[in-house]
Recover the amino acids of this structure.
């Protein structure tokens, strides 16, 4: 079983109430080879790296100044629970997200600048031995199935 970001399934769950549908993801969902999940919604909703948040060295702060660290951690934990419950070994997440980014995240200045880093959910999933990839790596991953 594969877990995928809800935004990649086309659901309007991104910061700007849009999705970013991916045909390959939709096929996985239609064929019941994947389940969609959004860590930020599970946590009900500027971070450093997700590992720093997990280690309590950094916090997630909204543009308004509200600290949403616990909500991000809750969403990450619930996503991990879902992955384990489904026996998922691979999770496809949306790159650049503060929750889901697997190689890049926004730098927290709210100016659309990205930095090398990993999101909170991606970091937690990897700490539990799960493979986390982003949507651009999906074609090569599917070729291995």
């Amino acid at each position: 079983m594969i877990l995928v970001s809800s935004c990649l399934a086309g659901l309007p769950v991104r910061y700007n109430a849009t999705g970013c549908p991916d045909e390959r993801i939709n096929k996985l969902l239609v064929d019941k080879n994947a389940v969609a999940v959004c860590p930020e919604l599970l946590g009900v909703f500027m971070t450093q790296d997700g590992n720093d948040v997990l280690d309590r060295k950094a916090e997630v702060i909204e543009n308004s100044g509200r600290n949403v660290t616990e909500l991000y951690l809750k969403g990450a934990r619930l996503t991990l629970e879902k992955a384990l419950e489904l026996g998922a070994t691979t999770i496809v997440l949306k790159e650049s997200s503060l929750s889901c980014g697997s190689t890049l995240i926004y730098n927290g200045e709210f100016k659309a600048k990205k930095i090398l880093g990993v999101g909170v959910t991606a970091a937690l999933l990897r700490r539990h031995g799960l493979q986390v990839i982003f949507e651009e790596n999906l074609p090569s991953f599917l070729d291995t199935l």
Notes: Helices lie at 23-30, 39-42, 50-54, 69-86, 120-127, 138-143. Residues 60 and 66 are 9 Å apart (CA to CA). The beta strands are 2-5, 34-37, 90-93, 104-106, 114-116, 131-134. The chain has a mean pLDDT of 86.
